[in-house]
Structures are given as C-alpha cells and as structure tokens.
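>> Question from a student workshop board

For tomorrow's exercise we were told to take the sequence and the ligand below, predict the bound structure, and bring the output to class. My setup keeps failing. Could a helper post the expected result so I can at least see what it should look like? The ligand is acetyl coenzyme *A.
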Amino acid sequence: MTAPAGRGLEGVVASQTSLSFIDGLKGILMYRGYDIHDLAPNATFLESVFLLWNGKLPTQAELAGFEAELAAERALDPRTLDALRAVPSDTVPMAALRTGISLEGIFDPEGEDNSPEANQRKAKRLVARTPTMIGAIHRIRQGLTPLDPDPSLSLSADFVRMSNGEPGTDEAVAALDRTLLLYLDHGFNASTFACRVIAATLGDMHSAVTGGVGALKGSLHGGANAKAMETLLEIGELDNVEPWLEKAFEEKRKIMGFGHRVYKTEDPRATHLREMSKTLTEQAGLGKFYEMSRALEERMISQKGINPNVDFYCATVYYALGIPIDLYTPLFAMGRMGGWTAHIMEQHADNRLIRPRAEYVGEQNLPWVPIENR
Ligand code: ACO
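>> Workshop helper replied:
Here is what the output should look like for this input. Compare the format with yours to find the bug.
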C-alpha cells in the first residue's frame, strides 16, 4: 500500500474543478477565471453566483431575471418555520441552520431528484432561502415573529430587514453583500469537500449542503470569524495586544482568523475586508478594533510569518454593521451556499465515488477471548 498523504490531506489534489482557482503562493483567487480583485469592487453577490453556476458573467437582462427568480423563491416551507419555532432559544444558530436546511430537503418536492434541471432549481431555492432562514432563526430566538420575505428588495437588503425588522442603509447592505461575494467559493475547502463527498455517493443536494453547514460550523473553518471577534473583545484595548499575544504564544494558543492551509501570503479576500473594516469601524465609532486588528496582524506576520485569513477582518466588518457575533458563521454559510451548490452540480455532472484509503496502524490477529474470560 502507498504511503499516506500529508496529514489533513495537505497538498493533495483530490479532483478537478472549473469553479475557482487559487494560487496560495501568489495570493490569487479567481471565480471562473475572473480575479477576485475585479469582482469584489464591481460585482454583486448574486452576479457572482450567476457567474459560478453558468460559467459566464450575466447580461443586465439575465441578472435581472436571475434576481427575480431567486426573489420569488425566498419563502421557507411553513413546516420548516414550525420546526424552527421548536428549537430551544439558546441553540447555536449554525446548529439551527443545519437542521433547517435539512428540513427544507424533506419538504422540497424535488428533494430526491438529482437531475441537472432539479439541481439548478434546488440550488436557487437554497441560495434564496438561507437568508430568510437565518433571519427567522434570529427573530424566533428573541421571541419575535419571523418576517415574510419582500421580493422587491435585493437578497442582502431583505436579509437585513428580516433579521432586524428594519432595512439597513444602502452602504451597510452593500458591505454585507460584498462579504457574501468574498465568501462565495474557495476550491476544495473543508465544507465544500464535505459537500462533494456526499454528492459523490449520489446523495441529494440538501443532504450535501447540510454536511457543508456542519463542516463550516467548526472553529478551524467558518467558525473562526466569530472566534476572531471574541478574541478582539477579550484583548479589549490596543495597549493589551502585545502582552496578550505574548501570553497566547507561550500558551501555544491558535489565534483565530490567522493562518491558512493554502495561502502562504496575503489572502486576497482579506485585502478587501481590511479596507472595509477600516472604513466601517471608523464610521461606527469602533475604530479601536481596527487598530487592534492591525497591531495583531503586524505582530503575527513579524513574529510568526502568519497572515490573516478571510475571517479576521470580516469579524470587525460584521461587528461594525451591528451583526450579533453568533450570526457571523451563518452569514459565511449564506455566501458559501452558492459555492457548495455549484460544486454539487459539478460533482454530479461527472461523478465518481470519493473513497480514499486509510493506513491501518492498529493491532492485528489478536486471539479471540470469550466474554466470560475477559
Ligand atoms: N495561530 C497561531 N499559530 C498558528 C496559527 C494560528 N492561527 N495557524 C497556524 N499556526 C502555526 C501552527 O501552530 C503550526 O506551528 P508549528 O509548526 O510550530 O506547530 C504552523 O503554524 C502550521 O499550522 P497548522 O495548524 O499545521 O496549519 P494547518 O494548515 O493544519 O491549519 C488552519 C490551517 C486550520 C487554518 C490554522 O491556521 C488555524 O487553526 N487557524 C486558526 C483558525 C482559523 O482562522 N480558521 C479559518 C481558516 S480560513 C477558512 O476556513 C475560511
């Protein structure tokens, strides 16, 4: 048997994709051939989802049609809402989201249909309904009634309204939308790979994305944006950054929002989020968190050679927007849903079961001992 791949499958190229390209040494990310540095300032989230699913940028008319189609799909199945009402109010929102997405699969009339046409329709429903679901989860846990979607609003604007009860400013909505675009897709990251493994068994789309939500929930992956904000709050003040970090190094603590399996230089998504964090924290009177982030970043790079990843500056962007910390990872899921569904469709279009081997390192050929003699 061949030697095992690097721990955690490091460096293993598991399959092919034409969805996103990453060069971890040069700090490049492209969706369908378009550089993230061109997309982030110019495109919307749904424009990028269209690009990812269709392999081409939409025309004005195509984008309007796509947005309208998704807007018409935003309402959750009432039975999903009933079930979410039964979730204890202290449930972690990512756990409620995982359960809600799975329920939508049960109620979806095409839940078990893996045809390309059904997959496209389900992908639209999933991207359209995830914001509604997160808004409902947030309101239900506060004892409030979930709000019906308003198809006249954009997906991001409607999310803000359905979670806060009032529309956000155009600037806040645009910032949120840009974070979703930056979270949209990223090669064979852990949650996307989980989706592809499930899809490759010919599992259905809802099963696969439910697995994706579960994988994203962990703090080494999507959970890191919330943990990064908790770290900044724990540090508290700019003057505390240095002593806090020294102690953290001594205790060999992982600094959340730093490090990446693929990027060994600036994560190109962080470039945009850093800029957004600066502007938005200043506007919100929370500039000290940006200053602390910069100090933490400078120290991490100079002492450890470790760069911030996508989650680090996204934390202060969401904080400045007034989003509750435990909704940061659900928002990551809201963006990544477009990527997960694209990968499931790509997997189903040219499928082979994903089934690696394990190197067995346990004992062998032990003598059988009857139960009364053990
Ligand atoms: N803080 C402190 N040290 C770190 C960090 C960090 N955030 N990240 C890596 N290191 C150190 C490790 O301790 C290790 O040092 P050593 O060789 O002296 O033992 C070295 O850098 C290599 O790190 P690994 O953990 O082996 O790197 P790996 O590729 O396995 O992990 C990961 C990548 C999980 C992202 C890691 O950097 C980490 O835990 N970061 C914090 C959590 C986080 O931000 N996750 C989000 C990632 S981005 C995303 O999923 C969207």
